[in-house]
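ok so I'm stuck.
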Amino acid sequence: MDPILVQVRRGDALEAVHRVHVAATDGTRCGDDMLCYFRSALKPIQAIPLVEGYDDLGDDEIAIACASHQAEPAQLDAVRSLLARAGAGVDDLELGLQRGRPEGKLGHNCSGKHAGMLAACRAHGWPLHPYRDPGHPLQQWIAELVGPADARSIDGCGVPTFAMPLSRMAEVFARTPPRGADAMRARPELVGGEGSTDTELMRALPGWIAKGGAEGLLCALSPDGVAWTFKVEDGSSRGLPPAIAAMLGIESFATVPVRNSLGEVVGSIA
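replied:
not stuck anymore, here's the structure
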């Protein structure tokens, strides 16, 4: 099948077109089996060493370790909980600052993942620093969990990331362990936040989990174990909801309004 074409209209005029490629573990394909980086969609796999290190983690702690959060109060509280478990502080987070975010490093959208990595190091008796180094035992374990990659690089928050075709990415995402998936289902509002595509997908499809990544990527896993990868070719995440609607039948995703700075609807993405 061809890629899904998502059209952006302002008034009656076509302003942009996004090509969305899709691969699923049941053999469904739309477009190309693109090679791209896993980015933040990998977080449920990167959280496995944390999940396996403790038997008393709260759903909030696991969900925030899998999150790209919006620095909402409950999300920041969950990050603080993981830091306390690690016996670490905000200064131990090996990431930078994001403009416009509150609370310094704590407000970084990947602070939950990094706090989870610190807690995983504490649980397994590894040095806390430099936990993001590719040679650190934590990152070596994550690389083993991911398996063969076509390329490796460094993600925006400083930890290793891996490139592979969309179909293989879906296979890796399908390995999200039950405990991690259960926490994401229980606390979807922590995984992304109000209005984020992954959070809203989990609310619309009970039993599913979903995690977005940079450059127009999203992975999802159905209750029956079929994993999906959606990738907007030009990297614009606004193309994701209508494409997800086309494949998964989420009616509320089918048409996204385009609004001006007054909040007026002036177009559509569909």
